[in-house]
Write a structure and sequence with these properties.
Protein name: Arabinosyltransferase arad1
Shape: flat
Oligomer: single chain
Number of strands: 2
Largest sheet: 2 strands, parallel
Length: about 60
């Protein structure tokens, strides 16, 4: 299972954002946090299976 992680310090334009809500399918992280040792690993380990399945359901709804 995978989790989409978007690292950005500002509001970026993402592909297909006019048809999909990335907040429902991805984790957003600022670059300062992303480079802290262990931050991403810990964050991703804390994503529950239920949440991953929720991300996947949202992706299917956007197809």
């Amino acid at each position: 299972m995978c989790v989409l992680v978007i690292v950005s310090d500002r509001n970026i334009e993402l592909p297909f954002e006019n048809v999909m809500d990335y907040r429902k399918i991805a984790k957003f992280v600022d670059s300062t946090s992303a480079v802290k040792q262990g931050f991403l690993v810990t964050m991703l380990k804390n994503v529950t299976i239920e949440r991953i399945l929720e991300y996947q359901r949202e992706l299917k709804l956007d197809e």
